[in-house]
Amino acid sequence: MSEKRLDYLTWDEYFMGVACLSAQRSKDPNTQVGACVVNRKKKIVGIGYNGFPTGCSDDELPWAREGGTLDTKYAYVCHAELNAILNSIVSDLEGCTLYVALFPCNECAKIIIQSGLKEIVYLSDKYAETDIVRASKTMLEMAGVKWRKLSGCRESVTIRLSEDCV
Ligand SMILES: Nc1ccn([C@H]2C[C@H](O)[C@@H](COP(=O)(O)O)O2)c(=O)n1
Ligand SMILES: [Zn+2]
């Protein structure tokens, strides 16, 4: 048999798969988010996941969701989108697409817009009813950044890490 394989990943599945693999690095006990920035030539130029800033201990800062401002993760965590953009290997992200597991918040929307990204592809919009996401969509729409939910693709991708994986 020397026919071309037909069940290879689509571009969308590939880039979202990379974003989701990156999410597995997150220490957040409740929501792990990964993001992947892709340029017009379909090259990955940045990857990130949600976590505390470099040098800020995962074991000392809080992972709680509730409590005073200083006692929850929200005051400290860097979102996956921020990290993917900051981790970018190129300085100009004009026209790039962001693949991200969870729809961006308002703060990330600002960064996405200012970085020149043109499209967001996401899996979940579980916080759609919050003002944070409403504000995000207002700004993204005004700035001409498109978004689409990834659909019609395979539900899962298996990655094997054993010697006989090839
Ligand atoms: N688009 C987003 C939204 C959220 N995050 C991060 C921020 C937190 O670490 C976590 C959300 O936690 P939850 O409130 O669901 O317990 O996800 C992000 O990286 N990107
Ligand atoms: Zn955010």
TrEMBL record:
Zn(2+) binds at H79, C105, C108. Signal peptide: none annotated. The active site is at E81 (proton donor). The keyword Ligase does not apply. Residues 10-147 form the CMP/dCMP-type deaminase domain. CDD domains: deoxycytidylate_deaminase. SUPFAM superfamilies: Cytidine deaminase-like. It comes from the Bacteria. One of its GO terms (molecular function) is dCMP deaminase activity. Its cofactor is Zn(2+). Coiled coil: none annotated. InterPro entries: APOBEC/CMP_deaminase_Zn-bd (IPR016192), CMP_dCMP_dom (IPR002125), Cytidine_deaminase-like (IPR016193), dCMP_deaminase (IPR016473), dCMP_deaminase-rel (IPR015517), Deoxycytidylate_deaminase_dom (IPR035105). Keywords: Hydrolase, Metal-binding, Nucleotide biosynthesis, Zinc. Belongs to the cytidine and deoxycytidylate deaminase family. This is dCMP deaminase. It comes from Desulfatibacillum alkenivorans DSM 16219.
